[in-house]
Amino acid sequence: MRAPVREIFCSAQGEGPYVGVRQAFVRFEGCNLECVYCDTPQGPIGKCRVEVRPGGGEFMELENPLGLEEVRCCIRGYKQAHSVSLTGGEPLLYADFIKALKPGLDIYLETNMALPEGARKVAGDVRYVAGDLKVRESFPERAKYDEYLEAMVECFKALRKTGDRDCFGKIVLLRGVDQEELVEVVEQIWEYISCLVLQPVTPHGVVSWGPRVGEVLSLQERLLERGVEARVIPQAHKLWGAM
Ligand code: SF4
Question: Which of 89, 99, 189, 209 is deepest in the core (most CB within 10 A)?
Answer without folding.
Answer: 89
